[in-house]
Amino acid sequence: MSGPAPEQLAAALEPVLGAPVEVCDLRRLTGGASRETWAFRAGDDELILRRDPPKRPSAPGAMRLEADAMRACGRAGLRAPEVLLDDDGTRLGTAGLVMRRVPGETIARRILRDEEFAEARRTLVGDLGRFLAGLHALDPAEVPGLEDRDMLRPLKASYDRIPDSSRTIEKAYDWLVENEPPRSATVVVHGDLRLGNVIVGPGELEAVIDWELVHLGDPLEDLAWLCVKAWRFGARPEVAGLGTIEELVSAYELAGGRPVDREALRWWLVNRTLFWGIGCMGQASFHLSGAVRSIDLAAVGRRASEQEWDLLELLAPDAVQAALAAPMPEARPDEAAPYGRPTARELLEAVRELLTDEVVPLGGPVTYQARVAASVLGIVERELARPPVERPGDSWYDLALVVRDKLAVNSPRHLERTETVAPEDRP
Questions:
Q1: Taking CA 327 as the corner, what is the angle to CA 321 and CA 332, rounded to the nearest 5 degrees?
Q2: 38: closest CA among 93, 76, 78, 77?
Q3: Which residues pair with 110 in a beta bridge?
Q4: Which of 214, 252, 275, 289 is within CB 3.0–4.6 Å of 257 for a Cys-Cys bond?
């Protein structure tokens, strides 16, 4: 993939920086499914370019909305990168924006585990609550052109386009329609505020990034997205793996955020969990259609079962506990096939061990793909070991058994993270 031209970048930045500059140390950063991120130096400035991939443009004006949202945050004293330049492609060749680099960490697992961020882990839930209170207090006129989005009905349309189905997804959607609360307010919503989209320093939140989903909507959407279980990355605490919902809500309200209705927040938590479940299925469909062949997208498709289980935990916790207590189908023995030894499962095991033990420790650009490939091979091994089970019922308990069986193949560790929460303690 060709990168941005240094000379083009330098020419675009010269009017902004007030002097000719030389662009150097240009390098592509990892992450970002729909946008490219590049780091570079321009004179003494460390800068970041976020741009559309060539030949894959975003909607017209999308970069300007991102830039205007960050500029509005800056004027309000909220932590967002300083935007130097946004462009529709006229100067940069493809739509993009240039920001000053904010030092810190974005990788969630490092933030959650490394000793360097121990202090930040104690303060980050409060920082995020206060940031959202400030964001939701912005005058929407500060970011002209924002779309006011319905975050329920389009979910069904997205699901209907996917060549796969999930009765759990369908039943959860029906629950959302039947229990939709009135909108609490109409505010500027980030749309994707979670670990991975924040920059964290050793002691605090440094900046909120990745504003491509910014829109007008209910403030509870942002609060709920922070609490979706997928964004805890294996940690237990309810909010981003860092703290409790009460801590988040308290910080939000004390900083001027509107009072949070807990039942409405629960509705939004179901909504956003469903959204990500459909998103996982949709990413797999891109791979299966041939539009984007990617082992990463293929693997994400199997993670939809994690969101199904999370929906069941939210909507039918008693059924979840009953399913966990029910006998698990016995694994079938790995008998030698007519094709001889090693069997298919033994060959998969050998390749998985090679990737895990030999390739991943080498590091470099293929490390992430090697981890994903090893995970995929593990899924196939477990699937070959389990006979399919017909479960035709439609109760929450029947669905919990179906999803439990899926997780035993797709993500056994997710089963281990099942939570038992008393009804009075649920968000």
A1: 135
A2: 93
A3: none
A4: 252
pLDDT tens-digit map of 109-164: 999 999 999 999 999 999 999 999 999 999 999 999 999 999 999 999 999 999 99
Query: Domains along the chain?
Result: 6-100 (3.30.200.20), 108-317+392-425 (3.90.1200.10), 330-385 (no CATH)
Helices (H) and strands (E) in the chain, counts: 16, 9
Cβ neighbours for 289, distance < 8 A, ≥ 6 positions apart: none
First to last CA, the chain: 45
Query: Two tokens at 180?
Result: 């939709």
Q: Which residues contact 179 (CB under 8 A, 6 or more apart)?
A: 267
Residue 95 near residue 51, CB atoms below 8 Å:
yes
Q: What is the pTM of this model?
A: 0.92
H or E element: which one contains 357?
A: none
| Residue-wise pLDDT tens digits, 161-176 | 999 999 999 999 999 9
Separation CA 83–CA 99 (nearest Å): 4
Query: Which long-range contacts (C-beta less than 8 Å, at least 24 apart) are formed by 15-21?
Result: 16/84, 16/85, 16/98, 17/42, 17/43, 17/45, 17/84, 19/43, 21/45
**The 3-state secondary structure of 106-165, one letter per residue:** CCHHHHHHCHHHHHHHHHHHHHHHHHHHHHHCCCHHHCCCCCECCCCHHHHHHHHCCCCC
DSSP-assigned states of every residue in 359-397 = IGGG-STTHHHHHHHHHHHHHHHHHHHS--------SHH
DSSP state of 186: -
Instruction: In whole angstroms, give the CA distance from residue 129 to residue 243.
Output: 11
| Cα 315 to Cα 270: distance, rounded to the nearest angstrom | 8
Tell me the C-alpha distance between 176 and 267, whole Å.
7
DSSP state of 257: P
Residue type, 40: F
